[in-house]
């Protein structure tokens, strides 16, 4: 437990945040005490834990405890400790008492709780946990933006844990040097992998949900917490995030390679990276493609006018296919390994709706094309992506 003046200050600061958010709502119920059904919202930093805890905390009968600073400060010493459950309970009960919320279901949202989740649930046998998982590549973008793990970053957080490249408590001793010498993107991916892996190691009383589908998660969360779905759905309806998939435009090829090297297996296990991950596609006239074969590169007829080659991710190629090519019998679909491209690939928004497509600024080198599929004609609006060449 935190000690001294700084410890008392952290308790007071946490209680103040809760009181400001909760005000006098449900005061009589809050003062009754005895509520044991806490909720632990866990996940990597920058994965939506704050929003989700706030949404649950806004439901009658709950109170968002925010990030409990004294718990965050204590967690490095709690990992593996025999008395971890008792110490976690002592910290949270003190916060709940100071914040006048012992009679409602506290929602604890400190991301580091992932590393002591089993102990937290042991401390409260009637508690439930919700693990929110966001695509690690988008998390890396956000962590790089914040700079918490970046070399040269000075300062510390509210729990006095230092920023910068130094190894955290969740890095094993034999990997500390490698962590500190890694790139900023690799350290961020390391953090995401560590937090997510820790939370996923606990199975009992834990619900895993995806950040990208959070707006539709109310029924599952409500069932897990044994509450009505409608109030929670109203809270979650505020979820808006235009940054989903931002890694495509924000991470360089080198950064993305670092992320995939560190966290690739977990990204694939979670379905964030599928077998088509490095593949993009391009619809070409068969005659144009055939004409390129004696050379080393392909250029569509409109390249000189536009300055780039229109391409698509496999899950979005139906948009240009249905808009531009319905009914044609002379087309092929080029399957392209984006990592082999010699030209610059940029993800840019289409003017009409803001959907981002990959544009290749330069010729398409033929050795980047891993397969070619002849396309049969399709009716307007009925394009179906052929099976991947795997």
Mean pLDDT: 90
Tell how many strands the DSSP assignment holds: 13
CATH class of the largest domain: Alpha Beta
Ends: how far apart?
A: 54 Å
Proportion of β residues?
15-25%
Annotation field: number of helices = 16
The count of domains is 2
Using the 3D structure, state the CATH architecture of the largest domain: 3-Layer(aba) Sandwich
Overall SS class = alpha/beta
How are the strands of the biggest sheet laid out side by side? 2-3-1-4-5
Features:
2 domains; 13 strands; 390 residues; Rossmann fold; elongated; ADP-ribosylation fold; alpha/beta
How do the strands and helices of this protein lay out in sequence?
Elements: H1 4-22, H2 27-30, E1 39-42, H3 49-57, E2 62-64, H4 69-78, H5 84-98, E3 105-108, H6 117-123, E4 128-133, H7 136-146, H8 176-181, H9 184-200, E5 206-210, H10 218-225, H11 229-236, H12 247-250, H13 253-269, E6 279-285, H14 286-292, E7 297-298, H15 303-306, E8 309-310, H16 318-324, E9 331-337, E10 344-349, E11 356-361, E12 364-365, E13 369-374
Structure, explained:
This protein is of the alpha/beta class and 390 residues long. The chain has 2 domains: 4-248, Rossmann fold; 279-374, Protein of unknown function DUF952 (ADP-ribosylation fold). The chain contains 16 helices and 13 strands. It has helices spanning 4-22, 27-30, 49-57, 69-78, 84-98, 117-123, 136-146, 176-181, 184-200, 218-225, 229-236, 247-250, 253-269, 286-292, 303-306, 318-324, and strands at 39-42, 62-64, 105-108, 128-133, 206-210, 279-285, 297-298, 309-310, 331-337, 344-349, 356-361, 364-365, 369-374. It has a 5-stranded parallel beta sheet, sandwiched between helices. A hairpin with a 6-residue loop joins strand 10 (344-349) and strand 11. The N and C termini lie far apart (54 Å).
